[in-house]
Amino acid sequence: MAHKSESTSPQSEVKTSNEVQFEASNQLNTRDISEIEDKLETGQPDEADIEMFMQIAQQLESELCSIVVGQERVIRELLLALFAGGHVLLEGVPGLGKTLLVRTLSDALELKFARIQFTPDLMPADIVGTTIVTEQSEHQSTASRRVFSFQPGPIFANIVLADEINRATPKTQSALLEGMQEHTVSVGDTTRPLPRPFFVLATQNPLEMEGTYPLPEAQLDRFLLKVLVRFPNAKDLLQIIDTTVGLQTLQARQIASGEQLIHLINTARAVPVATHVKEYAIQLLLATHPDQEDTPDPVRKYVRYGASPRGLQALIMTSKVRALLEGRYNVSLEDIQTVAFPSLRHRIILNFDGLAEGITVEDLIETIVEETSTP
Amino acid sequence: MAANAPSRYAITLQEEHEGDKFIENLNPWRTRLWIQQILRWTEYGIIVSMLCACLLLLISRFIPWPTASYWAFGVAAGITLCAIAAALWYRPSFEYSARYIDSQHTLQDRISTALELRNDSTPISVLQRRDALRELRKYRPETTISLWPGRARLLTFGIATIAIALLLLLPNPINTYLRQQAALQARLNRQIAAINRTRLAIDNQQTISPEERAQIDKILRNIAAQLQQSSNQEQAQQSIAQAQSQLNQLRDQQASQKAQGRADASASLQNSSNTNVSNTGKALASGDSKALSSSLQNLASQLAHMTPAQRAQLSQQIEQAASQGQNNPLLSSALHQLAKAIADNNPSEVSDAIKNLESAASQDSSNNTLNNSINQASQSLQNAANALASATDNSPSQNTTQVQAPGQNQSPGQTNAPGHGQGVSGQNGQNNTNNNAGKNEQVFVPGQTGSGTSNISQDGSTGTVQSGNSVPFSQVIAQYSQMAHDAIQNSNIPPDLKNLIQGYFNSLEGR
After folding, report:
1. Is the Cβ pair A274, B128 closer than 8 Å?
2. pLDDT for residue A356
3. Of the candidates A216, A246, A270, which is a domain's last residue?
4. Do residues B368 and B346 touch, judged by C-beta distance below 8 A?
5. What is the domain range of residue B287?
6. A 319-338 residues with CB below 8 A of B?
7. Is A199 inside any structural domain?
8. Do the chains contact at A329 and B128, CB–CB below 8 Å?
9. For residue range B21-57, what is the model confidence (pLDDT) as tens digits?
């Protein structure tokens, strides 16, 4: 797949060495990935590809589970989003290993990792980068001249951890929007592609809501999954003690490269989905809308807006990945039901009654899954 | 290596073959599911049909429904046949079979996906199909799809069988009511037939004017129609009473007095020494118009040869007859006119008087015939009423005494049409309950107040006294005979009929 070429402005005709190095590495990265994608588009993944997927996914999952203890479900859901090529919003109280999880993931995949700690005074330029004036020496002379050069922000990484994303202002939060959806960043009048693969893993703390800026629905919808990080149980806590406060420091071994990851994403997309499974996913999605005919009563009573078509895409894509992770070559109804919770929980907006009565989206999704008849 | 690699065409053929193989492997499951569906739907059909039959039989215990059992059987058979036909017609599809296998063995939609993508040649679809086929071969349709009915269905079938057996075997109380209604309808039909025969007989009587025949015909037609629509005994009796009232309105109220006057006048004339006058009296008595005309013409011819004294005597005799027959004003007036004309010896007046006398006699005879027809119709209606009442009298709650005359072989409720031995007199206009020997008759007398009902029936050989509120025949016959005697004496019944009625009661007392 050919990416949109970078547009240049007269202002940036003369480039600094730093910018030239960045663009060169970025262009190389983009060219290699395009070649891989072109190769994948010409033919369907074969048995070897699928075996590779299963092998890598299994190794990656076991590697993550060995380091991040007691969060097997979170790891599984993170892998679902990773192999589906989507972004994840992790919600949980501090200290549960969210950052460790993301860092371990980047280590295991040999990807460039960047962490952005969101604060109220964080500016969009702190994320996407900015154009600065730098000194550039002339060739064959000792004179130098001042030129504008682009200083890329931390978003130019393969895995971006947006820590406590709800602490930044909406303006800063929206700096992520284009990158998450289009995989490009526009600074000034220049649009630059982000490296591939590109994953945003955002975290937010559900407890300290004072001084926070809840993510708008439009931005929430761009996250493929919303994963709830729950507190580990006593057994897991014991293992955490053994593995973290001793002399031994665990380091994830490299499982796959970025190119392989893109290959695995395309492999997962090839998993077939039967018509009745698609119809069931559509029924589930429609059941989240209060104005639909077959909507369950609790949804009709407590929901303001239902999930968008992106929710359906999330259901199908993550179900495909789950099928492969489970060792199957097809998507089942159980896959759809399982991924319905992380795929839909941030796409269903409660109304005032729902909020006032303390209704949780989890309960509503459970009701929807129970009351939607399987074909 | 490259030479040994299968060509693309060979791979495609192999994939198509795998798709066919998948269908072949799925087919036994589909057939087994079809057999199970036929058996199961048939079981459901039988159970539902039995429940429907139970419902219909239950309804028939609350609502009169004579054909309920036939309907129950028909509905049950229909539902069962429909269930079997539907099971045969709607054969399970491959898609249904695949989803059934997926759900039964928790195969995570492997089979249904493979079925849908059986013609897909992408590598992952081929892998999926092989995986599904491998999973499918682990199971057998004979062990997965049971053909035996479930416990719940067997239990429901047993309950439905017991319920339907009870409903069929236990007597239905509403059937008694239905039989009574059927019997009532049969009696009504017989009475309607009898009334129609009476109506036809009256229509054939040419001596009655067409207008009067039409009136009687209309009344009898109406009562026949009303009886046809009657749903109970009371309604039928009320209709008959109304028809009798209408017939009585047609009847000449002075008929009996006129008949008495005519009889007196004719008797007086018969006592005359003059042959022609005596013949005139006889003709008047018999109602023979031809004989009357002949005798009056002879009398007119005789007048020319008679002396004044003889004419005066003849005039006096006729005048006396006119006085005797004063209860019949028209006849008396004609006789007065004839007596005066004879006394005046005026031939033209005599001729006019003779015409008037013939006319009066003719009109009188016509009225008499009309009354007889009305009596005949009224008697027919009375017989119908009696027949209907007699059938009801069989129930202990009725307060009517039925007495069946000796030598009768008629069942209760049956009546006789005129001309079949019923003693309806065509001459005196009175109700006659006497029968010829060997013919059927029913006689009803009022029941005894405060003593229950009496129902005595005799079939000619052995008498039967019914139990319950019936009273012995011998206890009431004397009283009834006295009542009949008193009634006869206080009415204008002709002497011959009085003797007939008295003889009837004497014969009853003798038994």
Report:
1. no
2. 92
3. A270
4. no
5. 256-370
6. 323, 326, 328-335
7. yes
8. yes
9. 888 899 999 999 999 999 999 999 999 999 999 999 9
Q: How far apart are CA A82 and CA A67, in angstroms?
A: 18
Domain assignment of residue A303, given as a range: 271-375
Model-wide pTM > 0.95? no
Instruction: Look at B109 and A332 and tell me if their CB atoms are within 8 Å.
Output: yes
Q: CATH number of the domain that A132 lies in?
A: 3.40.50.300
Whether B440 and chain A come into contact, CB under 8 Å, resolves to no
Nearest CA-CA partner of A325 in A45, A59, A100: A59
Q: Please indicate if any CB of chain B lies within 8 Å of the CB of A195.
A: no
Examine the domain organization and report whether B155 and B29 are in the same domain. Answer: yes
Domain final position from A217, A235, A270: A270
| Contact list, B128 vs chain A (CB under 8 Å) | 272, 328-330
Largest CA distance in chain A: 78
Nearest residue of chain A to residue B116 (CA atoms): A274
Can you tell me the distance from the alpha carbon of A169 to that of B20, in angstroms, rounded to the nearest whole number? 61
Q: How many structural domains does chain A have?
A: 2
Three-state secondary-structure class, residue B40:
helix
More confident position, B257 or A288: A288
Query: How far does chain A reach from its first CA to its final CA, in angstroms?
Result: 37
Please state the φ and ψ torsions of residue A88, each to the nearest 5 degrees: -125, 140
Nearest to B110 among A270, A276, A330 (CB): A330
Domain boundary pick from B335, B370, B405: B370
Q: What is the secondary structure of B194-239 as a DSSP string?
A: HHHHHHHHHHT-TTS-HHHHHHHHHHHHHHHHHHHH--SHHHHHHH
Residues B412, B391 contacting (CB under 8 angstroms): yes
Specify the pairing of strand A159-163 against strand A199-204: parallel
Helix, strand, or coil (residue A149) = strand
Asked if B251 is an interface residue toward chain A (Cβ–Cβ < 8 A), one would say no
Strands A184-187, A129-137: parallel, antiparallel or unpaired by DSSP? unpaired
